[in-house]
Write a structure and sequence with these properties.
Structural class: alpha/beta
Distance between the termini: 54 Å
Radius of gyration: 18 Å
Strand order of the largest sheet: 1-2-10-7-8-9
Number of strands: 10
Shape: globular
Strand content: 5-15%
Largest sheet: 6 strands, mixed
């Protein structure tokens, strides 16, 4: 049997997504950091998606996906699985559109993210580990006939996340390096699809925690591999398995994936807050963490954009990190 390889999202797909979400999400700033730039020998900028609606980049992909659902798919209600940021984004977008929404989250998910999802009107089911939550989601989707809005492995979601890349290039057209936190790979897939088509010389590098090397494992195996265990303070980077679409994008367009430790993640949160006055959750600060730790290097004076992908951190976790 012939299996068709996933098609890569095009630049036109991303431009269409930008039209779809225009006026429905924030056009987040690209903020310079002189002191951290000197420390890393770069001209450093932060793409502040921690200031996005719901506190992360996730509404971009969700809103683009919902625009393309049929009336019947919307009528049946929506479902997803998430450690938190995608859950909030889908709950928010569903509320705006007047749609029913169910999100399955793992035990130990951020209480703040659970509460926010419920506040937007979602039905929240808490179930087991991240892997268990994924399986429970499939069970509920089948039994209730709900429409899946995948957190990352969907071309429409990837195209929506790619609008982050367009905005970076609008503000910094001569960018040399873009550093992106990686979970299931939707954000880096979209950003790389934009950046590599418009500025092929720019490097796109992804960052994962040692405790959740989802895409690293998939690259090594040549296919998505389900992680047996995830253990990291970066709850936003705990996808249990990469997707076929995201793996195809990473293999074709991403220059490198690096791993960071828990202390390095915590250091990224502290540095962003202390020196850039930006509050990022550990997942959101992964790119800065990798740069500060030397896991990602760039020639002196390089123009670097680090994506702060989210800022949803519980006060208890923030105290722990600080």
């Amino acid at each position: 049997m012939c299996v068709t390889a996933p098609q890569l999202v095009s630049l036109d797909d991303i431009h269409r997504a930008r039209e779809v979400i225009a006026g429905r999400v924030h056009r987040t700033p690209l903020v310079s950091s002189t002191l951290l730039g000197r420390q890393t020998g770069t001209r450093l900028f932060f793409k502040a998606e921690n200031l996005q609606k719901t506190g992360s980049f996730k509404p971009r992909g969700v809103l683009n996906k919902l625009r393309h659902l049929t009336t019947d798919e919307k009528r049946r209600g929506l479902i997803t699985f998430s450690a938190g940021n995608h859950a909030q984004a889908l709950a928010y977008a569903a509320a705006v559109e007047g749609l029913r929404c169910l999100v399955v989250m793992p035990e130990g998910a951020s209480e703040m993210k659970i509460a926010a999802s419920r506040a937007y009107g979602a039905e929240v089911v808490i179930h087991g580990t991240v892997q268990d939550a994924l399986e429970k989601m499939h069970e509920l989707r089948e039994s209730r006939g709900l429409t899946l809005v995948h957190p990352y492995d969907d071309p429409l979601v990837i195209a929506g996340q790619g609008t982050v890349g367009l905005e970076i290039l609008d503000d910094l057209p001569d960018v040399d390096l873009v550093i992106v936190p990686v979970s299931g790979g939707g954000l880096i897939s979209g950003i790389a699809a934009a950046v590599k088509r418009i500025r092929p010389s720019a490097r796109v590098v992804g960052v994962e925690p040692h405790g959740a090397p989802t895409v690293t494992e998939a690259l090594g195996a040549g296919r998505p591999v389900r992680l047996e265990r995830v253990a990291t303070i970066a709850d936003g980077l705990t996808a249990p398995i990469a997707g076929d679409h995201t793996l195809a994008h990473v293999r074709a367009l991403v220059d490198e994936i690096v791993l960071v430790s828990e202390e390095e993640l915590a250091g990224g949160v502290r540095a962003a807050l202390q020196y850039a006055k930006l509050l990022a959750e550990p997942a959101g600060a992964a790119g800065l963490a990798a740069l500060l730790a030397g896991r990602v290097t760039a020639p002196a004076g390089s123009r670097v954009a680090a994506v702060l992908s989210g800022g949803n951190i519980d006060l208890g976790r923030l105290k722990q990190v600080l």
